[in-house]
UniProtKB/TrEMBL annotation:
Domain of life: Eukaryota
Binding site for ATP: 23-25, 134, 238-240, 257
Species lineage: Eukaryota, Metazoa, Chordata, Craniata, Vertebrata
Disulfide bonds: 67-115, 75-98, 81-109, 164-174, 208-217
One GO CC term on file: receptor complex
Similarity-based family: Belongs to the P2X receptor family.
Pfam families attached to this UniProt entry: P2X_receptor
GO terms, biological process: calcium ion transmembrane transport; response to ATP
Membrane topology recorded in Swiss-Prot or TrEMBL: Multi-pass membrane protein
Protein name as it appears in the record: P2RX2 protein
Name of the coding gene: P2rx2
Transmembrane regions: 280-305
């Protein structure tokens, strides 16, 4: 079993050297604008981890000034607002004033910050066409111990990638996936994932028997969600970024809270090739475990050595009759 099934005659190497290059294509539309790949993909250079925006909460036209903090700093008097106080959950530095907020029905501590403070943002969905976005995942691996390299693209012609889509049986070496396909293969509902965000893992496994032709070493793809689904604390995946501009001489920004699908490409694998040393070790271990080691040694010494008579006389004791 160890020798045949587990290939105990092979020298093995795990954890190949790997490079991953990704590229996303597609256009979608929200309620206010058209989004192209330059806006909804981060980071833009395309590595083994990237995110695709599926929903945004926009806080437009923020400028540096003073304004009510909001629901996290409700107050009844200025004694509730410590001047110059700041914490990790606040939007800025408190001025010490308790000012009207929410149309005057409530009061909140005033802060020096980007105003108006985040909270009255507009939500926009980008998910309408997002399922049709295409993701190219270009992977190249190398096993340095054996000097073996291979990639996951084998194009019969130069424009092959312009018309193909990944298929396990007919297009294994066309690593172009639709975003909806990745989410579906991970067992997730696209609409729910796009609403709150999440992390999808694309696992590429290279398990190669280098005693066989190179064509037998092929990538195997699997997909699963990596972040905890249904977490009560900080569910999903989101982050913030800002776009700055000048408005009538005032530095102004648009703050965007982005929800999206993050894709992590994970490459793993192992390679094996015949080697004399592991073969000898495996055979010796097997023979010892079966109790044949001492038998073979005795047989060699008794039948194949020049001094077999001397060994026989020492191994076997002659008992006189009677």
């Amino acid at each position: 079993y160890v020798f045949i099934v587990q290939k105990g005659y092979q020298e093995r190497e795990t954890g190949p050297e790997s490079s991953v290059i990704t590229k996303v294509k597609g256009v979608t539309q929200s309620s206010s604008k058209v989004w192209d790949v330059g806006e909804y993909v981060a980071p833009p250079e395309g590595g083994n981890t990237f995110s695709i925006l599926t929903r945004v909460e926009v806080s437009p036209a923020q400028a540096m000034g003073t304004c009510p903090e909001g629901p996290s700093a409700v107050c009844s008097s200025e004694q509730d607002c410590v001047p110059m106080a700041m914490d990790v959950s606040s939007h800025g530095e408190r001025t010490g004033r308790c000012v009207p907020w929410a149309g005057g029905t409530l009061r909140s501590c005033e802060v020096l910050a980007w105003c108006p403070a985040e909270g009255g943002s507009v939500s926009e969905s980008l998910a309408e066409m997002a399922t049709q976005f295409t993701v190219l995942i270009k992977n190249h691996i190398h096993f340095p111990r054996f000097g073996f390299s291979k990639g996951n693209i084998q194009a019969p012609e130069s424009d092959y990638l312009k018309s193909c889509t990944f298929n396990t049986t007919s297009a294994l070496y066309c690593p172009i996936f639709k975003l909806g396909f990745l989410v579906e293969q991970a067992g997730e509902d696209f609409a729910a994932l796009a609403e709150k965000g999440g992390v999808i893992g694309v696992i590429i496994s290279w398990n190669c028997d280098l005693d066989l032709p190179d064509a037998e070493c092929n990538p195997h793809y699997s997909f699963r969600r990596l972040d905890p689904k249904g977490a009560l604390a900080s569910p999903g995946y989101n982050y913030r970024f800002a776009k700055y501009y000048n408005w009538n001489g005032t530095r102004t920004r648009v703050l965007i809270k982005a929800y999206g699908i993050r894709v992590d490409v994970i490459v793993q694998g192992q390679a094996g090739k015949f080697s004399l040393i592991p073969t000898i070790i495996t055979l010796a271990t097997a023979l010892t475990s079966l109790g044949l080691g001492s038998f073979l040694c005795d047989w060699v010494l008794l039948c194949c050595m020049d001094k077999e008579q001397r060994y026989s006389s020492r191994k076997f004791e002659q008992v006189p009759p009677g």
